Amino acid sequence: MTRTIDARIVPSDEVLEEAARVVYDGGTVIFPNDTSYGIACDPYESEAVDRIYAAKGRSDNQPLTMHVASAAEFLEYAHDNPLANLAVKRLLPAPVILLIRKPTFVSDELSAGLQTMAFRVPDDAFARALLERCGPLAGTTANPKAGPRYSGNEDRSMLPPADLLIERGPTRYDRESSIVDITGSHPRLLREGAVSAARLSELLGPIERPSVKVRTQR
Fold first, then answer.
1. Domain count within the chain
2. DSSP letter at 71?
3. Alpha helix (H) ranges present in the chain?
């Protein structure tokens, strides 16, 4: 059964220490991000990672997202990427997932065998404080497979099982995060969300969009 701690009542230092205890013991934590609640764990605790996959019913070929506390920490994974440097200067922290080439020092297990990795530097002070205390964390949204995004207003019963739920009320943004691929020479928008395509283009330069061929039935 998931244990709950209310960060609106309990002092932040106590909440962060309890979250760190759970993570360091190999547990899983549901915490408020900037766009939704996420379920996460120590990325190097294989059993905890497996528990997230099981709790979410997630396919093995769907990698988790690495959540880090700061733009500077993100750059440790992408220091040789010009677009990552630009994102650090102009964009982060933000409700955006950035896709980069997997660093050679990161195991294939963490990337589900893919040559790319997804990163988040959340635009939420509490989430960044949590990541500073016990991160980086590998995770995904705590949303159910079908149903609304869990943003702190919905029924908790829709959440997957975890060792600890940090309740803090509604998230800062009421839309899902944007997803931007920065593995190439130009940023490529994979999903438009809390940060619009127009705003991303202002900050990062021209944004490519995936082209989808529309076929008409005859």
1. 1
2. H
3. 12-24, 46-56, 71-77, 82-90, 125-134, 197-204
Residue 210, domain member (yes or no) = no
Sheet architecture: strand order including 188-191: 3-6, 164-167, 29-32, 37-41, 137-141, 65-67, 116-120, 96-101, 178-181, 188-191
Is residue 82 one of the residues assigned to a domain?
yes
Is 188 a domain residue? Answer: yes
Best CA proximity match to 103, nearest among 85, 113, 115: 115
Question: pTM to 2 decimals?
Answer: 0.92
200 found inside a domain: yes
**Tens of pLDDT, residue by residue, the chain (218 residues):** 789 999 999 999 999 999 999 999 999 999 999 999 999 999 999 999 999 999 999 998 899 999 999 999 999 999 889 999 999 999 999 999 999 999 988 888 888 889 999 999 999 999 999 999 998 999 999 987 666 667 666 677 789 999 999 999 999 998 999 999 999 999 999 999 999 999 999 999 999 987 655 555 55
Q: How far is CA 92 from CA 3, 163, 175, in A?
A: 32, 30, 17
Domain encompassing residue 20: 3-204
Q: Find the CATH number of the domain harbouring 136.
A: 3.90.870.10
**Hey, CA dihedral for 125, 99, 179, 152, is it positive or negative?**
negative
Alpha-carbon 142 to chain mean position: 10
Contacts of 161 (CB under 8 A, 6+ apart): 1, 2, 55
